[in-house]
Amino acid sequence: MLDRKLIAEKLEECARRLATRGAEGLPLEEIVRLDRRRKELQHAFDEARNQQSQLGPRIQQAMKRGEEASDLKAQSAELKAAVREHEASLREVEAQLHELLLTVPNLPHPEAPLGGEDDGVVVRTEGEPKEFDFEPKDHVALCEASGLALLGERASKLAGASFVTFLGEGARLVRALINFFLDLHTREHGYTEVSPPFVANRETMTGTGQLPKFEEELYAIPRDGLYLIPTAEVPVTNLWRNEMIPGERLPLAYCAYTPCFRREAGAAGKMTRGLKRLHQFDKVELVRFCHPEASDEQHQLLLRHAEEPLRRLGLHYRIKELATGDLGFAAARCYDIEAHSPATGEWLEVSSVSTFTDFQARRANIRFKDPKAPGSKGKARKGFVHTLNGSGLALPRVIVALLETYQRPEGGAVVPEALRPYLDGRELLGA
RNA sequence: GGAGGGUUGGCUGAGCGGUCGAAAGCACCUGAUUUGAAAUCAGGAGGCCCGCAAGGGCUCGGGGGUUCGAAUCCCUCACCCUCCGCCA
User: Fold this and answer.
1) Could you confirm whether A352 is annotated as catalytic?
2) Strand partners of residue A165
3) Residue A299 near residue A96 (C-beta atoms within 8 A)
4) Does the C-beta of A63 come within 7 A of strand B?
5) Which of A46, A125, A135, A362 is 20 to 30 A away from residue A389, measured at CA?
C-alpha cells in the first residue's frame, strides 16, 4: 500500500513511476479526493465528539443540584446523533479509500531497469556451463529412468496434473535439500527458523498483497475462510502484523520451510512437463524486516544468502535484475536467481529476491519504534519497517538442475559434496 | 464439541454507571544526597492517531448495544485457565 500523503503531494511523479511498471488507469485522483474528504469528516467527527463529552460533567453537576437537566440531555442526544452520522460517513469513506489503495501496486525502485519481461539485466553469471561427452538427458527422462519422481498418470491420480510424487531416494533428496538449506541459513547466515501454518486467513493474505487482486492464484478452503499459502512469505511476514517492532531488534531475519500451493491460473498455455511448474512445491524462504534506510543494503545481503546454496551445490546460475514491467505487485526491486538446465539450455528461476520497501508493512501495519535516547526529550522515532524476502531456494527446479548437471551416461547422478552429509554420505543417486 | 472462570498501563494489581486515562507497588526518567554506585528523599511520566503548533480525537482484549454519560451493565467474537467429551 502506498502512502496517501505521498500520492497527494506527488501525484504526477507517482503516476509516472507506476506507469513504468505498466500500471495505468489507477484511481490516483480519486484517492486524493477521498483522502481530502476523509480529513474533513474526521474533523467534523472530532468536533462533535468534543462538544458532547463536555456536556457530561455539566449534566452531572446539574443533577447534583437536583435539577432535571433535560435541556442539556436533549442537547447531548442531538450531538450524539451528529457524531454517529459523521462516524458512519467517515467509515464509509475510509473503506472506499482503503479498497482503492489496495489495488495500487508498489512504486518501482528508482534504480530498477525500465522495461518489460525481456528487459531484465543479467547482473552476473556464476559457475561454468556443464559440458558433456555424451548426449545429456533432460530431467523428465532422468526421473523416468531412475524412478526418483513420479511424473505421469500414476502421480496425477492423486490430485491431478502438476502434482508430483517423489519416491525412495527422490523423496530422500527432497528432505536432504530442505535440511541443507535450513542448516545453511540458520547456522551460517543467522536466520531464525520458523515453522508456520500452511493455511492463512484473508487478512493475512491481504497483508502481503495476495488478496484482493490475486484470489485466482490461491487454493481456498471456503468452509473455514482459509487459503493454502503460496509461499512462506505470507505467514512469516504476517507474524508481525499490527505490531510495533522494538527498533533495537532490527534487522529481523527468518527462514521457513513450507510447501507452496499455487493454482497457476494465469499460466495456461505455459504448461510444461516435469518438475518445472507445479501446483505444489517445497521451498525454504528467507524473510527480513529492517529500518527503512537499511533496505538496499539488506537486499544485497539477502541476495548473497539466497544464492549460496547453488554455489555450494556447484551449479551454474545467473542473477537477473527484473525490469520495472516484470515486477511483482508488491515488489519495488527484484533479482531472480536462475539455475541453468544443461539439457535444455534454459535458465530456471529458483529464487526471486525482492524488496518491498514499506509497501507490505503499510498493508499489514508493521512498524518499528526506536528506543528513546536516554535523557533526551526528543520523541522516539517511529515508522513502517521495510520488508524483504527471497527463496533460499525453491526445490523442484533445483532438483532439475541437479539431476541434469550431475547425470552419468550409465544412469543415476553424482551427489555434490555439500549434500552428501544429508544423504548418509551417498555419492550416487538413482543408479 | 459441551460447562464454567478470566483478559485493566512495561510488569504486579485496585477500580459504587458520572473530573477514571484509571489507585497502589515494581520498573522507568529528572533532581538532591554521594568521589561514584546502592540506599534514601523530592518531583515526573501510559499508549496511539491527526496537527508546524496550539489543540483535538481514540484507548481498560476486538466489535456492537443500553444510557445524557460505560473500564464498570448487556450481546458477540478472539485468546487464556479449569472440568467433561474426542483425538495424532
Assistant:
1) yes
2) A150
3) no
4) yes
5) A125
Q: Which of A352, A362, A391, A404 is catalytic?
A: A352
Q: How far is the CA of A137 from the C1' of B62 (A)?
A: 59
- Residue-wise pLDDT tens digits, A192-208: 999 999 999 888 998 89
Task: Answer yes or no: A397 catalytic.
Answer: yes
**ipTM associated with this complex:** 0.83
Whether A84 is a known active-site residue: answer: no
What does the pLDDT average to over A385-403?
A: 96
Which of the residue ranges A103-107, A175-179, A244-248, A330-334 would you say has the lowest mean pLDDT? Answer: A244-248
% of chain A at pLDDT higher than 70: 97
Q: Which amino acid is present at A362?
A: R
Q: Which residue has the cell 480529513?
A: A39
The H-or-E segment that residue A130 falls in is none
A219 is written with which cell numbers? Answer: 487454493
**In 3-state terms, what secondary structure has residue A410?**
coil
Does the CB of A49 fall within 7 Å of any strand B atom?
A: yes
Q: Is the pLDDT of residue A375 over 50?
A: no
Q: Which of A4, A363, A397, A404 is catalytic?
A: A397
Provide the positions of strand B that have an atom within 7 A of a protein CB.
Answer: 18-19, 29-30, 48-51, 56-58, 68-69
Integer Rg of chain A from CA: 27
Confidence of residue A81 (pLDDT cuts 50, 70, 90): confident
Torsion of CA A326, A328, A332, A338, to 10 degrees: -70
CB-CB neighbours of A370 under 10 Å: 15
Q: Which one-letter amino acid corresponds to residue A56? A: G
Burial (Cβ within 10 Å: 0-12, 13-18, ≥19) of residue A3 = middle
Q: Which nucleotide, over all strands, has the C1' atom closest to the CA of A83?
A: B57
What 3-state DSSP class applies to A141? helix
Nearest to A194 by CA among A258, A266, A276, A255: A255
Are A286 and A305 in contact, with CB atoms under 8 Å apart?
yes
Strand B closer than 7 A to residue A48 Cβ: no
Determine the distance between A362 (CA) and B30 (C1') in angstroms.
37
Domains recognised in chain A with CATH numbers: 4-102 (1.10.287.40), 117-429 (3.30.930.10)
Residue A362 a catalytic site member: no
